[in-house]
Amino acid sequence: MAGHLLKVSSLATAVFASSGFYLYSRQLDLNDLSVFRFGRAAATTAVISFDYLTAFRHVEYGTEEYWALKSKVHLRSAERLRDLCCANRGTFIKVGQHLGALDYLLPEEYTSTLKVLHSQAPQSSIEEIQQVIREDLGKELSELFISFEEKPQGAASLAQVHKAMLLDGRTVAIKVQHPKVQRQSSRDIVVMEVLLRMVHWLFPDFSFMWLVEEAKKNMPLELDFLHEGQNAERTANMLSHFPFLKIPMIHWDLSTKRILTMDFAEGGQISENLGKMYSEMIFVHGFVHCDPHPGNVLVRKCAQSKRTEIVLLDHGLYQVLHSDFRLDYCRLWQALIKGDMSGVERYSLRLGAGDLYPLFACVLTARSWTAINSGISSVPVTHSEDIEIRTNAALYLPQISELLNRVPRQMLLLLKTNDLLRGIETTLQTRASSSSFINMSRCCIRALARHKRSKAQSRRKQLQITLAESLNLWRLNMYQLFLWVRSSMLGHWLTALLAFLPNLDITGGH
Fold first, then answer.
1. pLDDT at position 104, please?
2. Which residues of the chain have pLDDT under 70?
3. Is 19 exposed, middle or buried (0-12, 13-18, 19+ CB in 10 A)?
4. d(CA 277, CA 428)
5. pLDDT given for residue 486 in this prediction
6. Element housing 171 (H / E)
7. Residues 103, 188, 291, 314: which is the catalytic one?
8. Separation of alpha carbons 396 and 363, rounded Å
9. According to the 3-state scheme, what is the secondary structure of 71-85?
10. pTM (2 d.p.)
11. pLDDT at position 153, please?
12. How many CA atoms are closer than 13 Å to the CA of 158, on its beta-carbon side?
């Protein structure tokens, strides 16, 4: 028996040693091997699960000590998850960024910790970038460009962008995919699916399978840069009536599935016209850019017109909304803005929320049920309401998970987009401003009128619809003018005058 064990151990040692020599001779990065990536993810999942299972054994539920401990467990678990994403890179960082945007679903400790993944994406070496360009374009850098900056302008989870000058003197931005992402992504998604099923088995209230389903569907599209280029051109044509929007022109002769070459655009970050642009995409066209984080939305001053322009980048992830879905979504937002509770219930049900429609309305707007009942356009966001929303998100996690598994798949990316836009608005201090609701209302009116015209059987009916649309838009413009006057110096002066008039004794009496 001892001899048999000695033979087995000797054979295992020989195999291990030869495997190590092979890996060393190939200079293979262990992070490229699926077994190491899976092992790291499984170990992190096990540690986090064990922490949640054991941390609260000796603490009474609902006490101050319990909530303080829970916050600490959330924080250290979020940090472990962040470290896993940074170590495994690629698809893990992409999914981690998505989780960091789920303010309505995850505790604040998770979202604030995972948000840093937008600025901690890995970089490929210049040698790896050269190899991708050589394989896909068949030429060396010197044959394609006068200059090529080795330091990337920015790095993301799936690719990085370099500035270069073409042989004809034009400056371009070249988005080059990290060389290992394509091969690893499908395996990584399988790993996530297996581990999420295990976590769901341990914690039945934790149900994030919708996240894996979205990754399965969207990741192949995001990894196809030709698809991204087509999305960019479609959006440029679709929103050409916005003078403030600039989408860089694609150079198709220097683009492949892993390389996207476009005009170089410089700019600062973010503008208030963003809400107007996204309302147009969502409600009118149903073709939505779904990754509007600050790194993808720049602002610059146009040298010719001196106007401020938005530069919209990264067109890999779009959502095409079905017509019926888009129109019901329009009607739902109109009901939410007006405080039409029967409409909120009706269109939430049509969008799949079922008896969870009050929760759905709160998740969609990031507003309290009290604010929704009053009409979200008439009740400003307060700090106490934000705290209430975060507290409820933790309390209703099982119901929110059920809701996300219940609504149409199109809704998931819209919710992510809403959260990213909300974060930008918070930074700009324009969140829930009257102008954003007016822009949404205007787009909803136009979208519904266009739909009704397409169904009208006569020119007379079409004319009636157009006149009603014009009247509704005029009313909206008058309301916007009223709000502007009320907030202006003239408005403050008139308010003060009206308050002063009752105190005047215009009769001369005693």
1. 66
2. 1-32, 104, 119-120, 268-272, 425-436, 483-510
3. exposed
4. 16
5. 63
6. strand 171-177
7. 291
8. 11
9. HHHHHHHHHHHHHHH
10. 0.72
11. 87
12. 26
